[in-house]
Amino acid sequence: MNPKQYIYRHWSIVIILFLLPVMLYAILHILPTHDDWAGTTKPDFAPFFVKEHFFFYGYHWRPFDTWIGYIAGRNPQVLYPLFNHILVVAGHVLCSLTVYKLLAVLGFSRTAQNITTLFFFIAPATMATTTAVDSQNQVYALTIDIVAFLAYIKLKKGKYVLWPLLVFLAALFKENGLMWALICPILAFGFDFINKKTLKKDLIAGVMLMMLYALAIVIQPKDMNIHPEYVPSVLKVITSAVKFLFTSFITVDYIWLLHAPSRNLWMAALTLMLALPFFYVIFVRNVRIVREKKIVCTLIALCIAAAPHVLTVYSMMHTYAGLVMIAIITAHSITVCQQDIKLVTTAFVLFVIAAIIIDVHLIDASIKSGLVGKKMAVEAVQKTDQPADRVYVVIIEDAYPKLSSFCVIPSEAFGWGYATQYETNYRWPKAIQDTTITRAAHAMSEARKICHDKLRHKAADCTWIVDHQNIYVVTK
User: Fold this and answer.
1) Over pLDDT 70: what percentage of the chain?
2) In angstroms, rounded to a whole number, what is the distance separating the alpha carbons of residues 406 and 416?
3) For 57, which DSSP code?
4) What DSSP character marks residue 123?
5) Is 415 exposed, middle or buried (0-12, 13-18, 19+ CB in 10 A)?
6) Average pLDDT of the segment spanning 13-40
7) Are the beta carbons of 311 and 232 closer than 8 angstroms?
């Protein structure tokens, strides 16, 4: 196949490879915020052979996260977050290529493969994942799960060895990867790769694999500490389900729509109007396809993929886990619409314009959030007279609105003080504790009282008060 034929047949891959350096260059400017300063992909200086690098700890079993943190810790000023961003963007490209292969194996038209793969790659629904510093676990878990599904439907021998191993490997990147123990047979049944008898047998095998994973966690040495945010409630589940449906299917700039300080309803409406024709052509005009077995099974798979996030804690990052199912529905709809391909193409071009506008805005907002945290960290370091090993941070509760990882509250961008460790190349502070107090008329005097108490009882060498973006240093 000559280059011209290759470009014609696989134009989505060509565009993705062309966009790769552009996306990487833009994302490299995003600095760590919020959980990036507290998670296990941040620079880690512990010896490599420690429990946290291999086994279940806290409420996670993600050894690859800790290995990334260990590597970043070898030279944090150079590798963090550079190394993390490279892994995320490379993983997203790899995942997009596996989506392309998946759509081909499922028998969709070449046009459907190309449009849907590019849709997956640039969709604003993926941006909370691809712009995050610590989201490689999400990207590689999905990539490995897709490979597991391809092995499940392609292999005759060794299927029941490779499929469980790959699903288990995906779960070691992120726990939701385990859901493909059920998704693989359900999708395979929907597309007639297996019969009903095999479906029942393999669903039992999938449940057993989940039980094996649960057993592995139970018997490991661990320090179980479930964060309150992960405890489900009826209202939280309903709210998360609604958020998942909107962020997965409705393309609109949610910063302009929902983030009060950034609100611009005209621009939000523009992005929605540009994206709506594609939504209409794919999901509304062909709504009849939901009665087909393959789509019913895909929707069930979507619910299973979303379940771990909807039942615990949901953010825009978690849309990524279910987007491959949305890609399958999109590809099937385009294949059904083959006679109206010009209409589909026109609608998709409008979607691409909307996606570019939104993606650029989301990346810019993420960069600005990171710069706020850096500014605060630099200010704290400069205002502190001398290095302090133990710092206590008092945060005056901020009512400032936030949106996912794009628009972060200043105190969270500051990482509750942990951003300062990076600015000093992790020389100091060695230990940071924090507390948050309610914002009120007397909040500043209350904060100073807490600081003086900590200093008087020698519980800290230095204290910082965080009031929105302002840092106040209280020393002896």
Assistant:
1) 97
2) 17
3) B
4) -
5) buried
6) 93
7) yes
Asked whether 429 and 390 are in contact (CB, 8 A), the reply is yes
Tokens of 113: 């493969």
Give which of 294, 316, 292, 467 is closest to 397, Cα–Cα: 467
Q: Which value, to the nearest 10 degrees, does the dihedral of the CA atoms of residues 359, 142, 321, 79 take?
A: -50
Q: Which residue has the tokens 């290759």?
A: 6
**pLDDT tens digits for 369-412?**
999 999 999 999 999 988 999 999 999 988 888 888 888 999 99
Structure tokens at 367: 């960069």
For the chain, give percent helix, strand, coil, nearest 5: 70, 5, 25
CA–chain centroid gap for 205, Å, is 28
Total residue length of the chain: 476
Beta strands 462-467 and 431-437 are unpaired
- Is residue 138 a contact partner of residue 94, using CB atoms and an 8 Å limit? no
Q: What is this structure's pTM?
A: 0.94
Closest CA to 251 of 330, 328, 358: 358
Q: Characterize 256-291 residue by residue with b for buried, 16 or more Cβ atoms within 10 angstroms of its Cβ, and e for exposed.
A: bbebeebeeeebbebbbebbbbbbebbbebbeebee
pLDDT per position as a tens digit, 182-215? 999 999 999 999 999 999 999 999 999 999 999 9
Q: Which residue has the tokens 């998360």?
A: 240
- In the chain, count of helices (H) and strands (E)? 20, 4
Contact 199, 185 (CB under 8 A): yes
